[in-house]
Amino acid sequence: MKAFHTFCVVLLVFGSVSEAKFDDFEDEEDIVEYDDNDFAEFEDVMEDSVTESPQRVIITEDDEDETTVELEGQDENQEGDFEDADTQEGDTESEPYDDEEFEGYEDKPDTSSSKNKDPITIVDVPAHLQNSWESYYLEILMVTGLLAYIMNYIIGKNKNSRLAQAWFNTHRELLESNFTLVGDDGTNKEATSTGKLNQENEHIYNLWCSGRVCCEGMLIQLRFLKRQDLLNVLARMMRPVSDQVQIKVTMNDEDMDTYVFAVGTRKALVRLQKEMQDLSEFCSDKPKSGAKYGLPDSLAILSEMGEVTDGMMDTKMVHFLTHYADKIESVHFSDQFSGPKIMQEEGQPLKLPDTKRTLLFTFNGNTYPKDMEALLPLMNMVIYSIDKAKKFRLNREGKQKADKNRARVEENFLKLTHVQRQEAAQSRREEKKRAEKERIMNEEDPEKQRRLEEAALRREQKKLEKKQMKMKQIKVKAM
Amino acid sequence: MSTNNMSDPRRPNKVLRYKPPPSECNPALDDPTPDYMNLLGMIFSMCGLMLKWCAWVAVYCSFISFANSRSSEDTKQMMSSFMLSISAVVMSYLQNPQPMTPPW
């Protein structure tokens, strides 16, 4: 009987230890609820007290078959209470907790209390960590800029194309009545008129006309503003520039006399005088006013000699220049035209550049296609100038002066390049010698080799003798 | 007949074909903008792998080069420059998807 009683007690002790984790043990129903919930113990602890201290389970036995479990909140004297935890059998109080279980536990209550006291502050998430479209505003700006550039490209390209077409439609009749070939890109087998402009790029259009008296051909270049490039459009807001029509008429040698003449705006003439080879060599004086001939103050004249100016400035030409002065940038007639000055790295070029008898016209264009008809009289002026250039001839004095000028320019050029030409000739001679020596060395037949060497020696001796003769002659002349 | 010939300045027997002027003769007249922009675009594309704004500038350079190019120019070079700049932008964002920060 006593053994059975002891066994029951032990069983109950073990059962109550497992129940010690539960919260409220007043009812059996509560025990069932919290059976599986290990953390239920802590829920009620939060309501009752701030601390999360674990609770001590005290088992009391009143009767043989009944046991009640009381829960007590633990204080700081935990360790003292746990000393008796090992002695459980038959004891009214059981303390199953380890000393070390709650080490460092004092810190936790302090930190949790401080946390609850601090107010919650909402910090803004930095922009680079946000996931919204707004943070990509720079990228959106870039793409918008690109789209604006593309739109401007399409609009600018179309405008230039319309202006070119309008110009050509206005001038087609006049050109076709003066030239056999109007429009040629040089690729067709036969010389037939294409009847359209050649597009060099989005702002430059070319037209080649040929088959007329006096001239070999006429190249018209429509140089529009770079409306397709947004950067250029913005730059033009600072510095206004206008479209240009450049006409280059290549005259036949027999249809133009020898003179250099230019008329245009002062600014354009100063620039041309610096840039162009022929104007800088033959018209070294500053641009003169054309008021003497009835020209407006905006226009100036550069001329090789007075006779040319008098001959060129006839009534009709003056009429053209006066009425369309705002459209005229420059008019340049020259038999020594070779383009702009070429700057070479070695210094002067070794020979004079090729020249052509040329009439050059630069006109300012219109911004609107419907105003292209205003440029038609300028084309009439070009045609008139071609015929005039054929008719105009210098008198004897003028011709002599012109020839003297050309000879002077050539002599100056030769003097400047004398040293370079000498060096070039010397290097050519050395190269020839070296090539001959190599030929002799490479000759396999010894007989032939000997003969070649003898011939080379004889040639050298002859040269030396010639030189000596020349020196003697010079000495005799000097004496 | 003779009056017609006299008044008509056209001469079919004097037709000359168009010869495009060689660019070596007039280097000053040739616009160097497309070549410079092409080169700048390639340099900025290389730098774009390190800095995002460089990649965007490279795209702009290739667009400007295209807008200023001549008809006779090789389209392959234009396209390669354009593709290089686009790939620089894409690669810089793949490497670092964060938005671009202004340099100021």
TrEMBL record, chain B:
| Signal sequence interval, chain numbering | none
Query: Where in the cell?
Result: Membrane
Taxonomy-wise, where does this protein's organism fall, top ranks first?
A: Eukaryota, Metazoa, Chordata, Craniata, Vertebrata
Chain segments carrying region Disordered: 1-27
Q: Which domain of life is it from?
A: Eukaryota
State what protein this is by name: PAT complex subunit Asterix
Family of the protein in this entry: Belongs to the Asterix family.
Q: What does this protein do?
A: Component of the multi-pass translocon (MPT) complex that mediates insertion of multi-pass membrane proteins into the lipid bilayer of membranes. The MPT complex takes over after the SEC61 complex: following membrane insertion of the first few transmembrane segments of proteins by the SEC61 complex, the MPT complex occludes the lateral gate of the SEC61 complex to promote insertion of subsequent transmembrane regions.
**What's a GO cellular component annotated to this UniProt protein?**
protein folding chaperone complex
Any Pfam family from its record, for instance, is ASTER
The UniProt entry's GO biological process terms, in alphabetical order, are:
multi-pass transmembrane protein insertion into ER membrane
What residue ranges are annotated as transmembrane?
A: 39-66
By which gene is this protein encoded? WDR83OS
Give the UniProt keywords, A-Z.
Answer: Membrane, Transmembrane, Transmembrane helix
Give the main localization category: membrane
Q: What terms describe the molecular function in GO for this protein?
A: protein folding chaperone
